[in-house]
Design goal:
32% of the residues lie in helices and 18% in strands. The chain has two domains: 1-36, no CATH class; 42-109, no CATH class. By secondary structure, the chain is an alpha+beta fold.
């Protein structure tokens, strides 16, 4: 399931994008609206299985997503669940958790 499946598309004519529109010779730019994600509660965490992973040098969310979910594009689930937007928010030795199964994670997100 795509993280964009429940998001609406916005048609943007803002002046901020004027140079982009001009370079593309278009009158508007369509893009997805920004998501509103809440962090998982203690109750939410109780609904999923958590596999601990000790963060090491060279780890990447997309690699872990591929290892645990078979799909590297689901990296954002691991980042979101661990409230670490990027790998730079983690340090070697830190323990993160990989939530499974995906259907329960999707339920948490309202997908």
């Amino acid at each position: 399931m795509s993280r964009y499946s429940n998001r609406r598309t916005i048609v943007n004519t803002s002046e901020v994008y004027e140079d982009l529109r001009r370079s593309r010779n278009v009158k508007s730019v369509s893009h997805y609206n920004s998501p509103t994600l809440r962090h998982p509660s203690v109750y939410d965490r109780s609904l999923v299985n958590l596999t601990p992973h000790v963060w090491t040098t060279g780890d990447r969310f997309f690699k872990l997503a591929n290892q645990f979910y078979g799909e590297s594009s689901l990296w954002w689930i691991i980042a979101w669940f661990n409230t670490a937007p990027t790998e730079a928010h983690l340090v070697p030795g830190e323990v993160i958790h990989i939530p499974t199964p995906l259907n329960r994670v999707y339920d948490m997100l309202g997908y």
